[in-house]
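dumping this here before i forget
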Amino acid sequence: MQKNKGIRKVFKSDNLGIFVALVGVIVLFSMINKNYFTTGNLVNILTAASLTGLIAVGESLLLIAGYMDLSAGSLAAFAGVSAAIMMRAGMPVSVTIPVVLILGALIGCVNAFFITQLKIDAFIVTMALQCIVRGFAYIISNGEGILITDSFFLKLGTYKFFGIKVISFPIILMVLVFIVFYIMLSKMQAGREIYFLGGNQAAARLAGISLKKTTYKLYILMGVLASAGGMVLAARMNTGQPQACVNLEFDAITAAVLGGIAMSGGYGTLSGTFLGLLLLQCFNNGLILINVPSFWQSVAKGVLLLLALSFDYFRSRKRG
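structure:
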């Protein structure tokens, strides 16, 4: 009885729908290309999902709280470039990584300051920071990729536990982040405050929840996750690239909304986001394997985002 109850709880209507869609995408592309459903390609999908997944966790928490962050992709690129430049200048990895994470946290603080203190819409603030941070990434790198030679740092993108591809460091990091914040959202007071904040800010104030404090925490977390993801990507690529991670935040938001996170705030789970992330990456990978031109891939991703927003609209009407 308890087991059946647990299964029903995990596969609620939103999650069940996205799970069926995920299976459908896998079956479809497997029929078109026999190389799709192979161990090597599934590892490629999870590895590609690792960066988007970190950003998707941060975006999910922000969306539940009624916010969003359009600067995450630019910050990830800036973090990779900054780490590469610091190590080229002789800074040890043990110092470089904390410094870059702190930079990400500070940029998160800047976002939160304009949103909470000056009451500027999160969409506008983070879009402005998107341009500023990306610009600085190009400025400090002179528009060129910065080669990374530190062997320990490079292991962040390539290290495989027990020599097994599927448990590489990027994949394990993503899974751990999902697990930690899933527990936080579903089991802890901090998670309930995030839902409360996105559901009804006036009621949250009356309940004694500090809107400013919670907002700062969420944007700082987003900055740290984006910076961590950017460094892992730089380690995988062996370079810090200022042009990396363009539109990464939109992929993360698409994954979150596909997984049932409400754009209006106050609703959704990270289990849904994880399924949405897998669906998005399986879809993108399938398009690449069947040699769909890159510009048509962009069109398809845009259509997928519109579908996700449409699903969110109908889900919100159903909840209402």
